[in-house]
């Protein structure tokens, strides 16, 4: 499996650096739910820092980390208004109640995180979904390095979860070096959804499927993929083709469809009452993958 920095260098995403070994200097939170700034490793993006919210259990201790990666708004102009998810949300409390440290971070180009927008896929005629996922994976790696270095966190065996665009970046992250992570879960993962809203149409689903195949070729850790039956961004037929391409290429992923969620199932992960649909599956999957 390619190292993340080497792969991105080959793709022209990062530059070379002769600086000394990186020593993280983090803004450590003092209370549950504090907002922190996560710096990038020099040579990846010297100017960037990611705004994040850390949610911790009430009792002191060292807890397993769950990094939850957000999606992208359909209207690109809304990226600047995004905020890290709150610790009082249903999704956050599902994990903190089970004694996990939860980290919600905004990747580059979202909200007040600095650095350029790096996950754009380009024109719908020929979008680069493969590269977009890998650039998102760079940010996930920085978030994970931060989280697992904290005194309240376990240093390894982190859980990486992503929703929509964040789910796609999570799939990509499994295809490169990820020494700190041992469990990957993608909710409604994909790209190009609702490129044209009337009717809802995906932009080049063939290229989404082709990119998933490429990720599967080098993925090393089993994954859980979760979609709602009424997700119109990524319909079931497309998801099944994407999953089949990923698995045939060598990736390992369990595909689960939940019952419909409201009028639009794409927001399954954060939907009110959503944990009643996906919670049992996630608990079971984490328990299975955590066995020695």
Gist?
The chain is of the alpha/beta class and 292 residues long. The chain is built from seven helices and ten strands.
Give an overview of the whole structure.
This protein has a single domain (29-289), classed as Alpha/Beta hydrolase fold, catalytic domain (Rossmann fold, 3-Layer(aba) Sandwich). Helices cover 30% and strands 18% of the residues. It has helices spanning 4-11, 90-96, 129-148, 165-173, 205-218, 236-248, 274-289, and strands spanning 35-39, 49-55, 64-69, 100-105, 158-163, 181-187, 196-197, 200-201, 223-228, 253-258. α1 runs antiparallel to α3. The longest helix is centred in the middle third of the chain and has 20 residues, at 129-148. Mean pLDDT is 87; it is low at 13-31.
Shape estimate? globular
Number of helices: 7
Total strands: the figure is 10
CATH architecture verdict: 3-Layer(aba) Sandwich
Give a short account of the largest sheet: 8 strands, mixed
The spatial strand order of the largest sheet comes to: 1-2-4-3-5-6-9-10
CATH class identity:
Alpha Beta
CATH topology title: Rossmann fold
Give me the Rg, rounded.
18 Å
Q: H/E element string? A: HEEEHEHEHEEEHEHEH
User: What is the count of structural domains?
Assistant: 1
Mean pLDDT: 87
Query: What is the CA–CA distance across the termini?
Result: 23 Å
The percent range for strand residues is: 15-25%
Helix content: 25-40%
Spans where pLDDT lies below 50 across 5 or more residues: 13-31
SSE arrangement:
Layout: H1 4-11, E1 35-39, E2 49-55, E3 64-69, H2 90-96, E4 100-105, H3 129-148, E5 158-163, H4 165-173, E6 181-187, E7 196-197, E8 200-201, H5 205-218, E9 223-228, H6 236-248, E10 253-258, H7 274-289
Parallel strand pairs: 3-4, 3-5, 5-6, 6-9, 9-10
Antiparallel strand pairs: 1-2, 2-4, 7-8
Helix pairs in contact: 1-3, 3-4, 5-6
């Amino acid at each position: 499996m390619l190292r993340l920095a080497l792969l991105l260098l080959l793709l022209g995403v990062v530059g070379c650096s002769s600086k000394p070994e990186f020593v993280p200097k983090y803004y450590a939170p003092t209370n549950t739910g504090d907002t922190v700034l996560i710096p990038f490793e020099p040579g990846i993006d010297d100017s960037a820092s990611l705004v994040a919210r850390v949610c911790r259990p009430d009792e002191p201790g060292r807890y397993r980390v769950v990094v939850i990666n957000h999606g992208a708004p359909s209207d690109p102009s809304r990226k600047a208004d995004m905020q890290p998810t709150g610790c009082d949300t249903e999704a956050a409390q599902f994990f903190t109640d089970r004694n996990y440290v939860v980290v919600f971070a905004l990747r580059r180009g979202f909200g007040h995180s600095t650095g350029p927008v790096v996950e754009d896929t380009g024109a719908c005629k020929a979008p680069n979904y493969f590269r977009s996922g890998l650039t998102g994976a760079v940010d996930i790696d920085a978030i994970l390095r931060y989280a697992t270095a904290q005194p309240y966190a376990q240093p390894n065996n982190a859980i990486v979860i992503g929703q929509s665009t964040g789910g796609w970046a999570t799939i990509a992250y499994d295809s490169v070096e990820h020494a700190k992570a041992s469990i990957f879960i993608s909710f409604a993962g994909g790209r190009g959804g609702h490129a044209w809203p009337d009717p809802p149409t995906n932009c080049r689903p063939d290229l989404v499927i082709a990119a998933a195949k490429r990720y599967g070729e080098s993925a090393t850790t089993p994954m859980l993929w979760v979609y709602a039956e009424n997700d119109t961004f990524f319909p079931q037929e497309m998801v099944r083709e994407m999953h089949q391409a990923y698995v045939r290429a060598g990736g390992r992923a369990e595909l689960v469809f939940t019952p419909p969620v409201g009028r639009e199932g794409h927001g399954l992960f954060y939907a009110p009452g959503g944990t009643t649909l996906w919670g049992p599956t996630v608990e079971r999957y984490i328990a299975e993958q955590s066995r020695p």
